[in-house]
Design a protein that fits this description.
Elements (H helix, E strand, L loop, with lengths): L8 H11 L3 E6 L7 H16 L3 E6 L2 H10 L6 E2 L2 E2 L3 H25 L4 E2 L9 E5 L3 E3 L2 E3 L5 E6 L2 H4 L8 E5 L1 E3 L5 E3 L2 H11 L4 E6 L16 E3 H10 L4 H15 L4 E6 L5 H7 L6 E4 L4
Helix pairs in contact: 3-4, 6-8
Length: about 290
C-alpha cells in the first residue's frame, strides 16, 4: 500500500493562503503518546503547518501514561465519571509523566523536525491560571477531587511570545497553577479549548484514536461535517456518548465562545492533520456554528 503523504501543493495552496498567520490549537490524546510511531506521523505534520505559515500550538494530556505510572508506584488510579481524583501522590505522577517525560518527548520531536518549540519541563507554563475544583456530590456521595483545577484565565502573552520573532510552537501539558503557584491537574480537552478561545484560534483540532464522530458503530467513515444544532441532537439521541460526548461538548463550548471551527480526527493514520486542514473534504468530523 502506498504511503499517504497528504494533499498536493495545488490542493493545499488555497487553504494555506486562507489560514496563514492563524493560530491552530492541536490537542494530542494520550492514546497517541504511547508509541513513537504515532508521534513520528503527527509531529512532521505540525512542522508542515509551521512551514506553511500557520501558528500551531500543541496541548497534550497523558491519562493512559498516568494510570500506568501510578500502578508502577503502587497507586490505584481513581476516577468518577471519567474524571480523575488527584491525590498529592498522584499529582506527583502527573508532574513527572505529563509535565516532564511526555512534554520533553514532544518538544524533542518537534525540534528534530527543525521546528522551534517551547516546552515546560516543570509542568507549568504559568499561562493556565486555575481555581481548585470544589467538592461535588456524585450518586449521593461527596467527592473531593484533590489537586484538580478549573481554568479561570489564560495568560496569552506567555504563549504568544515576541510577535516580531519567528513562531515557536508552545507545547502545553494539561496542568495549571493556583493563585499560590501550586500545580493542579486539568482536563487536556478543557485546556485546549480555553487556550483556543483566549488566543482567538482559527481552529481547535482534537486528535484522538478515533476517526471522528460516527453515525453508528457500523459506519465505515465519520460524519464529515456537523452544525452545533445537529451535534446536540446526536447527543440527545445517544449517538454521541461516553468519551466522545465529553470531547464534543468541550468543542461546542469553544464554538460558543468564539472558535469558528472544531475538528475531531484520528491521529493514528498518516497525514490526517494535513488532510483535515488543507483539503475541502477533510478526513474527520468538522463542527461549525449553525451559521456555517
Amino acid at each position: 500500500m502506498e504511503f499517504d503523504h497528504g494533499p498536493s501543493l495545488v490542493e493545499a495552496a488555497p487553504f494555506i493562503a486562507l489560514f496563514r498567520e492563524q493560530i491552530v490549537v492541536v490537542k494530542l490524546g494520550s492514546e497517541l503518546l504511547d508509541r513513537i510511531p504515532e508521534l513520528e506521523r503527527i509531529l512532521p505534520q505540525i512542522a508542515v503547518l509551521c512551514r506553511a505559515g500557520l501558528r500551531p500550538l500543541v496541548v497534550h494530556g497523558g491519562g493512559k501514561q498516568i494510570d500506568e505510572a501510578c500502578r508502577q508506584r503502587g497507586l490505584t488510579p481513581r476516577k468518577i465519571g471519567g474524571r480523575r481524583i488527584t491525590s498529592p501522590d498522584v499529582m506527583s505522577v502527573v508532574l513527572d509523566e505529563v509535565g516532564g517525560r511526555l512534554n520533553r518527548t514532544i518538544v524533542r520531536g518537534l525540534r528534530a523536525q527543525d521546528v522551534p518549540a517551547r516546552g515546560y519541563s516543570d509542568g507549568l507554563s504559568g499561562a493556565v491560571r486555575c481555581g481548585r475544583r470544589p467538592p461535588s456530590t456524585v450518586d449521593g456521595k461527596k467527592i473531593d477531587w484533590g489537586e484538580v483545577g478549573e481554568v479561570a484565565a489564560v495568560q496569552t502573552g506567555l504563549l504568544l511570545g515576541d510577535e516580531q520573532a519567528p513562531w515557536s510552537v508552545p507545547v502545553l501539558p494539561s496542568l495549571g497553577s493556583l493563585p499560590d503557584g501550586s500545580p493542579v491537574n486539568v482536563s487536556p480537552d478543557t485546556v485546549a479549548a480555553r487556550v483556543a478561545v483566549s488566543l482567538r484560534a482559527r481552529k481547535l483540532v482534537l486528535m484522538a484514536g478515533v476517526a471522528g464522530v460516527m453515525a453508528d458503530e457500523d459506519a465505515a467513515s465519520p460524519i464529515s461535517e456537523l452544525t452545533v444544532s445537529h451535534t446536540r441532537e446526536l447527543i440527545e439521541q445517544g449517538t454521541i456518548s461516553g468519551g466522545m460526548r465529553a470531547k464534543v461538548e468541550t468543542g461546542l463550548g469553544a464554538i460558543a465562545d468564539g472558535v469558528p471551527r472544531v475538528h475531531v480526527i484520528s491521529g493514528l493514520e498518516p497525514a490526517t492533520l494535513l488532510r483535515e486542514i488543507f483539503t475541502e473534504k477533510g478526513c474527520g468530523t468538522l463542527i461549525v456554528g449553525d451559521g456555517g
